[in-house]
Amino acid sequence: MNGLFLAVVVIIWLVIAYRWYGGIIDRRIVRPDDSREPPSCELYDGVDYCPGSRPVLFGHHFSSIAGAGPIIGPVAAVAAFGWGASVLWIALGVVFFGAVHDYVSLMISVRHGGKSLPAIAREVVGPRARLLFMFFVWFALILMIAVFVVVAAQTLMSTPAIVIPTFAIIPIAGLFGWATFRRKLPVALGTIGSLALLGLSIYLGYLYPLSLPFGGDAAFATWMVLLFGYGFIASVLPVWVLLQPRDYISTWVLVIGMVLGFTGLAITRPTLSAPFFTGWSHATQGPLWPMLFILIACGAISGFHSLVAGGTTSKQLKRESDGKPIGFGAMLAEGAVATLAIVCVAAGLKWAAPESSPESFLGVLKEGGPIKAFGAGYGGLTAPILTVAIGTLVGITMLKTFVMTTLDTTVRITRFITSELFAERIPLMANRFVASAVGVVAAFLLAMSGKWSVLWPVFAAANQLVAALTLIVLSAYLVGVRKPAKFTLYPAVFMLATTMGALVWKGYGFLFPPEGQSVNLALGIASAVLLVLGAMVAAEAPRSLRAARVKVGSDG
């Protein structure tokens, strides 16, 4: 099949789904009302609660939920199961699962004063389930921060050309925030100026690649300390100073990259060389169900998105009618990114080429992982516009930018969860500087110990478990306020069964590996703990679903 045809079909479907299914969710569940005062205005503090314009807040939300997930997961899925099953799950999952999960999470948080979903769980599925949910989310966030910092530090060491643009975007974002928020400069004018400065920084980075004067472990540790320090500062600054503008500018990096990618696709019109379907099971990844749905996370549905929606975005929503384009629309845009990633590797590279070839999909994937495979495929598609070398650099830069923006948001969300979890017993945790320091120090210790690499293989399942538990909370809430819960309940059942199945499969493989492989006790125990946690939280849901009322009040 022609790669351009596949991309066009998916994009058309996403546009239709936004109006059709998004309209159904609007009318039957959300019912946005701009006469309500949102938390960003009612609880305005200029730090976390601060209204943002629709395009700027879309940029924050989109860049925060995107990260590298919608690229890495689909690339790995194509290698394991072929492009057919991968695209089908993205196209259906992103509409009926992910966009609903994100949008409803956002609006329920808005109706509850910008509280996070784990905090709202106390009122919906009970205090015990809420406590378990929050502890699980907190540890997952600490793991994410540690991994993002490690990946960013490794990239800064291996690719000195990105050092200048990586750090230059910080003052550029601050200037944009000051100009548009304080001086009321038109957003369009600020955007043009910021992108011009960012382009200049990329050019300077290309001319003057920077490396630390020492290498090895000392350089790695130094970059990590700098990145953790940046994460702490970014998490306590007012959102208009850095978070909103940085994420907005970063979104333009991805938008421009996508435009170039789809333009290159329209020019080259390559044929998909990867197989449509490779079989019901893969030697390394396991069976199609449940593992395909764990591999492809952010491109279809991701529990982390509910933490962004209820952690930062709900505190910045200016009016309720902005919720659909930001919550529902950003998720569909992420599905478009995942589709581009699939076309890049399935059509921009060659499946049957020798592994030594720079155009070999499997060879590049084996040598440099999904990020390098995407960059090489993107370079192939954009060669008529950028050349292969520059196109590859642009593709990798897109990923690097979003790793950093997701790091910003994750540290801030961890601060919120830390306060919600500990402030009742330890009032000092309500202080944003203390709460941020607790999360950053915990992630720093985990990163320096190297234990993150032991736990990371089960994170994908943990992330999807958060999505399943979030959908359970949303369903219980909707039952309580007498709104149709089927839109979240059916996805909740599927995701819970899928995640549990994946944890059983992975846990069994860790504890009873094939002959010639050693037992991985740590991951086996981690899988068992996640299974128990999911079962305990899910066990609370039927009680709420059977109740005639859930004491959360009516949102009208």
Molecular structure report:
The protein is an all-alpha fold. It has one domain (3-185, 217-453): Hydantoin permease, CATH 1.10.4160. Helix content is 74%, strand content 1%. It has a two-stranded antiparallel sheet with strand order 1-2. Helix 6 (117-125) crosses helix 20 (459-480). The longest helix is centred in the C-terminal third of the chain and has 35 residues, at 388-422. It starts with a helix and ends in a 10-residue tail after the last helix.
Summarize the structure.
By secondary structure, the chain is mainly α. It has helices at about 5-30, 40, 55-65, 70-80, 85-110, 115-125, 125-160, 165-180, 185-205, 215-235, 245-270, 290-295, 305-310, 325-345, 360-380, 385, 390-420, 430-450, 450-455, 460-480, 485-510, 520-545, and strands at about 280, 285. A hairpin with a 3-residue loop joins strand 1 (about 280) and strand 2.
